Amino acid sequence: MVVRRPPGRRAQILAVAADRFHRSGYHQVSMTEVAAGVGITAPALYRHFRGKPELLDRAVRLGLDALADGLRTARTTAELGAALAAVAVGHRPLGTLVQRDARLLPPARRAELRRELRTDVALMTAVLRAERPELARADAELLCWSALSGCAGLSYLSVAPQPRRAEALLRELVAAVLAVSLDGTAAGPEAAPVSRPRPQARREELLAAAVRLFHQRGFDNVSTDQLGAAVGISGPSVYRHFDSKADLLAASLVRSRERLWHQVDGAIATAAGPRAALAAGLGAYVDFALRNGDYLGAMLSETERLAPPDRRIAVDFRRDFLRTWVGLLRQVRPEEDALAARIRVHALFSLVNDGVRNRPHSARPDLGDCLRRLGRAVLGVPE
């Protein structure tokens, strides 16, 4: 007897896998869990996909194919916004899969994904420059990358929003981003030279190296020997400062969170009134991101590698940090409810976090000013 597989089974598997990876992180999800979510056994799942890497690859590919299809037919910036919004809502896990998990794919596949995204941005840039011919290509590309990142922020919303409402707001955000003027942007101050740590500051040196290496290579791909070599000591000497690599990851993320909170909360607390506080907080967050892109990347990609107690602390911090911004934005825009404010704030974080790590635009000397203008656009608080 021939057993027929239900139609659309592969699509169903990919939808469940994308949702599980999105919610829990790639490393925390097993094939057995995906199979249970579909209602089949793990051996049955392996008849469709060889393993988790293929599941991740196919889930990302499915979302990016939908994005490319939507952008290919867009002829106006309004149609670009509609296409981006539809994919962001219809493939909500895509943002986290691309920004957090896609780096776990083989190098050749990562390079292919990057080329696909560049092709998408080239399509968007052509449409944008047709409507705004005064824009330099580099400026138009930055606006398009920012629109893409802002929509990806919907992926980090804890609860799926009502689709029609979310699409309408995202279309509004895309329109605001693509309308931003980058004329007269000012170059930021040059970063101060990094002084060589004193011997007694070896622990601090390790914390900084850990954030950098974990972000660039991933927690599992960094050895204690590599961590030690980064600060001029042997691998075993790392254990004089930290009990384990996991403890070093936790401590490095804690130190960076403390600096982020100190910088942003300090700026907000000293401002006169909600609007000034929001502007000051935005400026502080952009300044922090420009100097700490490795932390923002490691926070996004490596939080799931923490031990459960440390992971809860990290998640609680992000929740509290988000709540601070949402509360402040609603004071400035009282006509919007908490959901709309959360969508805007997530768009801001995604736009800035991508912006400081997305070459070649991350090398722009005026990037800080550009990101502040783009941030005000997605928050809906133009100057």
Automatic annotation (TrEMBL):
Looking at the record's lineage, which domain of life comes first?
Bacteria
- Please list the residue ranges annotated as the HTH tetR-type domain: 7-67, 200-260
Q: Is Endoplasmic reticulum set as a keyword in this record?
A: no
Q: Which GO terms describe its biological process?
A: negative regulation of DNA-templated transcription
Q: Which GO terms describe its molecular function?
A: DNA-binding transcription factor activity; transcription cis-regulatory region binding
Database matches in InterPro entries? DNA-bd_HTH_TetR-type_CS (IPR023772), Homeodomain-like_sf (IPR009057), HTH-type_TetR-like_transc_reg (IPR050109), HTH_TetR (IPR001647), Tet_transcr_reg_TetR-rel_C_sf (IPR036271)
Q: Name one Pfam family in it.
A: TetR_N
As annotated, the DNA-binding region falls at 30-49, 223-242
Q: Does the keyword DNA-binding apply?
A: yes
Which keywords has UniProt assigned to this entry? DNA-binding, Transcription, Transcription regulation
Extract the PANTHER family matched here: HTH-TYPE TRANSCRIPTIONAL REGULATOR RUTR, TRANSCRIPTIONAL REPRESSOR MCE3R
For this entry, the protein name equals TetR family transcriptional regulator
Q: Which organism is it from?
A: Kitasatospora aureofaciens (Streptomyces aureofaciens)
